[in-house]
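note to self: dont lose this again. the chain is below, predicted strucutre after it. 530 aa total, dont forget to put it in the shared folder this time
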Amino acid sequence: MVVRRPQLAAAVRVPVLVPVLVPVVVMFGIGLWGIDRGGMWRDEAVTFEVARRSLPQIWHLLHSVDAVHGLYYLLMHPVLAVHPGEVALRLPSLCAAAATAGLVAALGARLARPRVGLWAGLLYAVTPMAGHFAQEGRSYALVAAGAAAATLLLVRAADSGGTLPWCAYGGGLAVTVLLHELAVLLLLAHAAALALARMPRRVWRGWALTAAAVLLVLLPLVLVSSGQAGQVAWLRPPGGGAVERLLRSFAGPTRLVLGPYLLLIALALRAPLARRGEFSLPAVALPLLLLPPATLLAVSRHWPLYDDRYVLYALAGAPLLAAAGAERLLEAASRLRFPAEGLRLPAAEGLHAYAQAQAHVRVHVRHAPTLLGVLAITLAFASQLPVLRADRDPARRPDNLAAVAAAASERLRPGDPVLFLPALGRRSALTYPKGFEGTRDIALQEPAPVSGTLYGRETGPGELRRRLDGLDRVWVVAAPYALTSAWYPRNATERVKLTVVGEEFVPRAEFVRKGSVLRLYVRRPPAGTG
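---
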């Protein structure tokens, strides 16, 4: 039998909305700060370029590449149709991060009490990892919001029973896994939460049917994306430092925050995780925090799939546990009472004034722990402020395509031939076409939107060699690794680029931007001349 918690009825009252809304506002404010960095990096550029295509063109693309992000591109299509720009690109992620902070707070309020929810939501909001992905034009913040919503819907479905709550849970979970298929690991966390709470058979039956339906919905995406596995070929098996990096990302990158954070989590886990048939906060938060990252790390030892952004949604478990630990700490402190013996009661005529004074004291004492927790989170935010500030610098991303386009705009003239090495170097021109306005893309045969590719379809090696033969100079936009002797591409067209440019041209000028090299080549003079 499910035990009803006394705070469940209060979860929808106006006073409890305040602890939920405050983290939303804080997360939105932190995410809005510096959201226009002045440049997109390569992953954001893919979102920006693909989502602005027509719906048939997006559908055409997904058959060959990026099916795992298909739903996200379709959601971003109307957003960027209204006002294409960097702020619009990142605004859905910002709203999703703010919603996640509120959902974390709602989980804490429902499973414990409102102040625990407030602390958990605020802790989520000030975590640098949450702030980072709040400003990324990719799907990960939306996946985190979906996972938090699905977890809250699971708690409600297990408490209330009935078909409708399970349908809501299944719908939320289905959208989440379609936004990114690795969010399916959330099912493991939810199953573990049910097991820790020792839920009755009827709850397990409802969850199992819902999980099966979600897996059935996900199956077509898995089948298509498995044929596109080459997209994650850049991933490597996680090393020994992966766990520590993820721990610092979740609990705080500074020692001043990390130590107390882990201590509070340990306090939250000291008590029994749950009573039979009842969810507790640790029973829900601990599997959410541990199981998705641990499973993906273990699988990636043999089949590399791990990247910390793929398990961003597990972050929600950390602030929930830390807030629960803070509540346990306060409960332990509240048991310390001054002895009542020896106290003299006031005279009868002073009883009324005494009672009023005691009432005022109780009000202040009741709110003092909440404010103390908020103060501690404010100090944690101040400690991590340099990390958050540094994250707003475009140089913190792997590259800055706006800087590449700006360099090209300053140096290239209309009619100048441009060669992208490899073809994915074309993303700077696709994202910021004004920087390359009027130039000639020597290798391009069919533009990216028409060809159903990310970067366009290039001409064959024979035709490319013929085109290069007629040039005296060519600008090359290259990834740094493509200019090293160790790189040997499998694509024949890319090999022709390397061969012809290396043998028939010499570099005349070079301009380096993070992640890209802009280099002018002129034809090598004939042997025996000048």
